[in-house]
């Protein structure tokens, strides 16, 4: 295997490796580990009634929908990201929300849904490391949204993934936003 030369090449190599491990999980294992997230819901450092942004899973991502329902039952208003310019916007998610197709094979609340500012973002990722660095899918949607939201006040950023997606080191750049914590099927881990 050739050694990646550019920063982008290094990120892509780490991304491919982490995603290959995720894809190698069988479907039943993926379902069981997704359901296990609910066992750790009370370990999340969420302020009371904090607005929580989740994500609608794509492909073989961890499915956080049961976790989001547990958060809803604990009084947290929910929202989902929607592709918009100049960055993601966040729209209210309720049990009867109309969901429409979005980019990347995911769903988002319809444009008529109320826009919200999340206090907490539960974020998908390709890989993460022990220092709290998150490797996304390479489009920068979350990094630009995080920067914009943090200009308005504090934001807690928690990655959600399978434990097999942890890598030794995520190559990061100045624009990359680190995580405050990571939630996997084995529990919640805070980063300093």
Summarize the topology.
Blueprint: H1 7-23, H2 27-36, E1 52-53, H3 65-73, E2 78-82, E3 89-93, E4 99-101, E5 107-109, E6 115-116, E7 120-123, E8 127-128, E9 134-135, H4 141-150, E10 156-160, E11 181-184, E12 187-190
Parallel strand pairs: 1-2, 1-7, 7-10, 10-11
Antiparallel strand pairs: 2-3, 3-6, 4-5, 8-9, 11-12
Total DSSP helices: 4
The CATH class, by name, is Alpha Beta
Biggest β-sheet: count, sense, barrel?
8 strands, mixed
Spatial arrangement of strands, main beta sheet: 6-3-2-1-7-10-11-12
Helical residue percent?
10-25%
Q: Which of globular, elongated, flat, extended, rod-shaped describes the shape?
A: globular
Would you mind describing this structure in some detail?
Belongs to the 5-formyltetrahydrofolate cyclo-ligase family. Its cofactor is Mg(2+). The structure is a single chain. This protein has a single domain (7-190), classed as Rossmann fold (3-Layer(aba) Sandwich). 24% of the residues lie in helices and 21% in strands. The protein is built from four helices and twelve strands. The chain has helices at 7-23, 27-36, 65-73, 141-150; strands at 52-53, 78-82, 89-93, 99-101, 107-109, 115-116, 120-123, 127-128, 134-135, 156-160, 181-184, 187-190.
Short summary:
With 192 residues, this protein is of the alpha/beta class. It has helices spanning 7-23, 27-36, 65-73, 141-150; strands at 52-53, 78-82, 89-93, 99-101, 107-109, 115-116, 120-123, 127-128, 134-135, 156-160, 181-184, 187-190.
